Fold:
Amino acid sequence: AQTIHQWPVAEIKAVGSPLSLGCTIKGKSSPNLYWYWQATGGTLQQLFYSITVGQVESVVQLNLSASRPKDDQFILSTEKLLLSHSGFYLCAWSLVDRGSTGQLYFGEGSKLTVL
Amino acid sequence: SQLAEENPWALSVHEGESVTVNCSYKTSITALQWYRQKSGEGPAQLILIRSNEREKRNGRLRATLDTSSQSSSLSITATRCEDTAVYFCATVYSGGSNAKLTFGKGTKLSVKS
Structure:
């Protein structure tokens, strides 16, 4: 069975400080990986996606970056946090196949509060 | 602008009652999915309904899809307190490697005992 694990569960950080959020997927080889951001009470906004190791595409510019150093790992980071970065960050995976109807499997999320 | 939108924004029912959430979308889709997100958790898919399907069921859940009016509905019968969550519809308009899923803003459902 596939599992997806995000870390940390929650972070409280100061404006201007760096951030690193991680995600690991086990039990699925070469999945598509995604980062989503959700403001409190808001919709899910896709930030990045990756179809293979070393390749990451940005969907929305939010002064964040993402990397995929291993097939099963996806990292979200920034050198300098802004207040607007507060929210809930969700990692997800999906099947790679063409014709896939795009079901996403989400992790439990990381709650970020920037003060 | 939102490509998918749920309504109403919020609903409150008592346990045992039935409830329906509606979704309207603006693009040609290959499929529509309904997700549920409980507080502090990631969303979980409830039902996936393809563009050539009109209805799909999953236990107490029933989803419909009307491609002519670009709308979908999710009905929950015999609601329970644990159905309290935000319900999102999400549309799939690409079959490519980035399975681009666009979420609405969600309907907040409260089920009271």
Summary: The longest strand of chain B covers residues 85-92.
